[in-house]
């Protein structure tokens, strides 16, 4: 893919040059002279880091990511929650205390915002609602376990761990689920990111251990805030557009 190739080439060049210049300045000033072989060591470190960032982007491109919903993100942005759908479900059923169900359809309201209305186009009515049912992957998910937060807002949970919040104007329509696998995956990839910076500085560029550790923390933080987010956002946009392009082809099946 062109995006991944350009990402790798651009980052390899930029990081290689930046590491060469930065190491020459720091080691020449603090260590008297720079490490021998710097002019191959710095480009090698740049290639290693560029490959890591490209691989990270590849994982996002091939995932179910969308803008604002990146499964493996930076430590400051990731969430262990998985959304059932990228957008509020088009149809859901409100379960009432008398055993009846009310079908609600997502439509544009008077303020042109999405809201749930019944089949007579009346807005959502929370009276006697004790749960919801939504369709997911060909089966029905029932969220009928209710918990209240401090403000009295209700959250509905399913036996499988899906949960959906309810507000005054209706439910969010997007059940979500916390997953340990996603939490551990995000933790691992961010630790690998910091560890790679340290290894490049210590073993490849031959900084002293303490200097490599301190510089790695600074460079990891800088990359986490400035380099990685736009890369992953672009990768997520590509993943979302690819998924949208595949939906029409899959529909007739």
């Amino acid at each position: 893919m062109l995006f991944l190739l350009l990402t790798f080439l651009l980052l390899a060049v930029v990081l290689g040059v930046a590491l060469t210049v930065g190491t020459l300045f720091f080691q020449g000033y603090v260590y008297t002279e720079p490490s021998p072989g710097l002019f191959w060591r710095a480009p090698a470190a740049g290639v290693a880091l560029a490959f890591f960032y490209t691989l990270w982007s590849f994982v996002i491109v091939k995932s179910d990511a969308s803008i604002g919903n990146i499964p493996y993100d930076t430590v400051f942005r990731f969430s262990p929650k998985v959304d059932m759908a990228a957008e509020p479900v088009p149809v859901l059923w409100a379960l009432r205390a008398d055993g009846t169900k009310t079908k609600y359809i997502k439509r544009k309201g008077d303020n042109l915002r999405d809201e749930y209305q019944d089949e007579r186009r009346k807005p959502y009515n929370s009276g006697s609602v004790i749960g919801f049912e939504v369709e997911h992957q060909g089966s029905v998910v029932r969220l009928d376990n209710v918990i209240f937060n401090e403000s009295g807002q209700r959250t509905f949970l399913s036996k499988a761990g899906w949960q959906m919040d309810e507000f005054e104007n209706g439910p969010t329509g997007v059940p979500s689920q916390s997953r340990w696998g996603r939490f551990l995956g995000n933790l691992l990839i961010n630790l690998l990111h910091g560890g790679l910076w340290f290894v490049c500085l210590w073993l490849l560029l031959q900084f002293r251990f303490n200097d490599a550790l301190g510089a790695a923390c600074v460079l990891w933080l800088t990359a986490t805030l400035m380099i990685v987010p736009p890369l992953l956002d672009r990768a997520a946009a590509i993943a979302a557009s690819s998924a949208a392009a595949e939906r029409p082809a899959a529909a007739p099946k």
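Residues 84-178 form one domain. The chain has two domains: 2-79+180-246, 84-178.
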